[in-house]
Description:
The structure is a homodimer. The first copy, chain A, has ten helices and no strands. Chain A is mainly alpha-helical.
Amino acid sequence: MVEVRSVDTRERILDAAERLFMAHGYEGTSMRQITGDAGVNLAAVNYHFGSKESLMQEVFRRRLDWLNEERMRVLNVMEAEAAGKPLKPSQIVDGFFGTLLRMAGDERRGGMTFLRLLGRTLTEPSEFIRAFLAHEYKEVMDRYKEALFRSLPEVPKAEIVWRFHFMLGATSYAIAGTDALRLVTDWQIEDEDSVDRLDRLVPRLMSFLLGGLRAQLPQFSDSAAVDSK
Amino acid sequence: MVEVRSVDTRERILDAAERLFMAHGYEGTSMRQITGDAGVNLAAVNYHFGSKESLMQEVFRRRLDWLNEERMRVLNVMEAEAAGKPLKPSQIVDGFFGTLLRMAGDERRGGMTFLRLLGRTLTEPSEFIRAFLAHEYKEVMDRYKEALFRSLPEVPKAEIVWRFHFMLGATSYAIAGTDALRLVTDWQIEDEDSVDRLDRLVPRLMSFLLGGLRAQLPQFSDSAAVDSK
DNA sequence: GTCTATATCATGATAGAC
DNA sequence: GTCTATCATGATATAGAC
């Protein structure tokens, strides 16, 4: 408040953009809305970020850098403790998805707002943001993928990859569902105050994910290889 | 080709809109793109549908009417055959999600294009389309919800509702993932020709969904009621 | 029913004074 | 770094000839 304005300005733009992109999507949000909401001048976005696309990328980078580092750290700790033995599926799932969901409880890290933005963005195939996410995620994904392969040697790799996709989807909806999908299903979910909500959502989702990950293998109707190596 | 043009025009607009909304989202698609792609005049959309919003609704209605009727029909048949006994979870899941996925194999019903549009729209909380979907889905949802309650009497209702949410998410990503999420995860999924792809996806997803639906119940860390009755 | 032409407005971006 | 003013473009929608 007493300090430089420009640091504040940058941060306020990012906060407003995160909120608005979450609510209306990238295309559905204008720079005028963003700067208006942030209480800064229209030209400030282009001055600080160069373009709307770069702003979007920075909105993600600000949160994903921390998240992916944390995921790496957690995995490293678990693998060190396991001393060469494979991890349990529940450890891996918690390291990847639990870390993500616990972010939602931390307002300094974007809280629910960022998580919902992430969830919706994963189904919005805008070329530039998809390419960006693919790059940001690659390293972490590869590490967790390997951990799962070692953890479930009897499950074909292709099956694990698919189930990871499915887990991403369930998690994405778990986040959005806390208020968005409530309308789609039109079901009243018992009210739980917002702090409590997340504490219950995490174990709920974990049970579901682990049940799916360890489910009986599918039977294909034709005779082709189930495990394509 | 020899007949009236206007029927063709309407249908061609719907086809182009479905394709473009899927690829670029509602906000990201302009009427110029739609009419250009459809090979019709710019003014035709407003003549036939009144507005862009109404066009979007019609894109959904064209497919959802059939889908939801089919889901109802399948459920009615199964319940008649069960003669009062609860259905098996696998029957219910197949009736709801299997019917949806099998739509993807039927090009006359929109095929993969419509399914991916549906998947992405469920995470895009545009007010007008969400309200529309909530209305379109309500009746079917209630019927399937009841069937699941009866099928799994030992599972708290709140838990079933949540797991239904998670199943919707996994299914949504299963659809999109066939090419969109491939980039996000950057994993190469073994190539399977497109006809084969769906035949394998359905059993894969079904195994996962059933594993999640029937998973061990979560343990909450506090002592509050697990089944909030 | 289909077209051209256009009204009206919002968008992303920038130039240049301060 | 921040502001005002403005550009060029593209948006939805409509009026009116054919």
